[in-house]
Amino acid sequence: MPCLVSSLTVRRYLTLFAGVLECLCFAGTIFGWASLVFVLKTKGYFSSHCTNTTGVNSTQVLDCSGQDEQFSLVFTIAGFIFNFLILPNGFLFDHFGTTVARLFGM
């Protein structure tokens, strides 16, 4: 009986460690989106959607509202897919267990 209790304790800690590792590796895209957009803008993603416009006093201004719209669209689609896949992942979790649900989630 003591061996069973220690086995369950080790398994509980391994499950906790795996869950924290999954959150660190895969949840950053959704939760760290504002920082990721800043990096993607400096790298030039969707920069083809930026246009030169004439501002006040006939100065040239770079309008990147199209770039911002593209980043918003990417975030919206990623958020929708994340929430939509919770239902099949819950079905897999109920019928096949934690390992299969985690592998499908990754």
TrEMBL record:
InterPro entries (alphabetical): SLC43A3
Spans through the membrane: 12-39, 71-93
Keyword Membrane: yes
Superkingdom of this protein's organism: Eukaryota
Entry keywords, A to Z: Membrane, Transmembrane, Transmembrane helix
Name this protein carries in UniProt: Solute carrier family 43 member 3
Native source species: Zoarces viviparus
Lineage: Eukaryota, Metazoa, Chordata, Craniata, Vertebrata
